[in-house]
Amino acid sequence: MNQNQTTRLIIVAVGGQGNLLASRVIGEAALASNVPVRMSEIHGMAQRGGVVESAIVFGNAESTIISDGEADILVGFEPLETLRALNKCNPQTLVITNLSPLSPATVSAGKSVYPGLKEIQRLIREKTAKLIAFDAAALAKEAGSVLSVNMVLVGAMIQTGVLPLTAESVKEIIRTKTKERFVDVNLAAFELGFSKADASS
Description:
Elements: E1 7-14, H1 19-32, E2 37-43, E3 51-58, E4 73-76, H2 79-84, E5 94-98, H3 105-108, H4 117-127, E6 130-134, H5 136-143, H6 149-159, H7 167-177, H8 183-200
Parallel strand pairs: 1-4, 4-5, 5-6
Antiparallel strand pairs: 1-3, 2-3
């Protein structure tokens, strides 16, 4: 991929899922690879399970703002949040989503109903170029910690080749910039996500 080509990535998650660490790993890998990168984050009520959104723009771009319809790739750590961010997509967008739901408070309280996972996937497929959807939480547990969902999805992102980053550049950041006690689990999670996205292609 041309490192100067503009690529716009949106990551959406629920507070506590590790979106910000995933964004930092990707941003650091871009800097280490001399890929121009700009990042911004929108924090909802993260500590209460609210949405956290990161916008990362690679290449020659003046702004970190990704307007409706501008995302080249949307990655969702939670399926309903992925669906909610669909307005950022266009018919050429690649979408990667975790299929393990975290019900919002309104659903837990019985005030609303969580849509079916098949319906969520159908709606996303109708409006985008490609959907890669799988249970990232199950792979994270296989890697050694459910908290490594973020690295599973980073692995899937890198496998697609949409981002101007190599797997080795990202793994090097995981090795050197994440907490030492989590490095092995994070690397295992990355590899599982990378393989799963490859199998889904």
